[in-house]
């Protein structure tokens, strides 16, 4: 079987925008902020040398964080920002942005949302500066593909409904 007869064919397409285009600046900055956020965390059940003498900051917000200790406030703040900042206390989901958390709360936990969405456009675009609303999630996905260059394979509903982190109690 030759490469041309392959079932999975790759059709390269020219990007509508170059990687240096200002369109990508906000996403690049957010990715860089998250990717470069490193914090020093001690996760150890055994007592450390001189443990009782050291002033560690402990996280007790979730059971999965009880064994974490941080040496500085900056380390704790980085942990908080990545783990607890956009946290849904109803279903224990952490989302990437405040906007995604608000959309998640509406679409997943607001019983009135389903009734309203049958009468008017309620599904918000997931992009921060876009105020478009749609009648359903399929229409929103099409908008994200056409206007914001999302991939057709992107699980758009997963961005607001799927767990990034699941905490076990």
TrEMBL record:
<dbReference type="InterPro" id="IPR013087">
    <property type="entry name" value="Znf_C2H2_type"/>
</dbReference>
<feature type="domain" description="C2H2-type">
    <location>
        <begin position="125"/>
        <end position="148"/>
    </location>
</feature>
<protein>
    <recommendedName>
        <fullName>C2H2-type domain-containing protein</fullName>
    </recommendedName>
</protein>
<dbReference type="InterPro" id="IPR039258">
    <property type="entry name" value="ZNF511"/>
</dbReference>
<feature type="domain" description="C2H2-type">
    <location>
        <begin position="88"/>
        <end position="109"/>
    </location>
</feature>
């Amino acid at each position: 079987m030759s490469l041309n007869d392959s079932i999975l064919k790759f059709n390269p397409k020219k990007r509508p925008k170059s990687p240096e285009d200002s369109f990508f600046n906000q996403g690049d900055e957010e990715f860089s902020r998250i990717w470069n956020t490193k914090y020093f965390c001690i996760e150890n059940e055994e007592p450390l040398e001189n443990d009782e003498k050291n002033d560690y900051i402990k996280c007790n917000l979730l059971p999965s964080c009880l064994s974490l200790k941080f040496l500085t406030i900056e380390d704790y703040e980085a942990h908080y920002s990545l783990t607890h900042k956009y946290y849904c206390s109803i279903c224990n989901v952490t989302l990437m942005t405040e906007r995604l958390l608000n959309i998640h709360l509406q679409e997943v936990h607001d019983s009135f949302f389903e009734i309203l969405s049958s009468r008017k456009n309620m599904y918000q675009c997931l992009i921060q500066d876009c105020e478009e609303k749609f009648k359903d999630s399929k229409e929103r996905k099409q908008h994200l593909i056409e206007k914001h260059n999302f991939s057709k394979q992107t699980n758009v509903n997963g961005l607001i409904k799927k767990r990034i982190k699941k905490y076990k109690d």
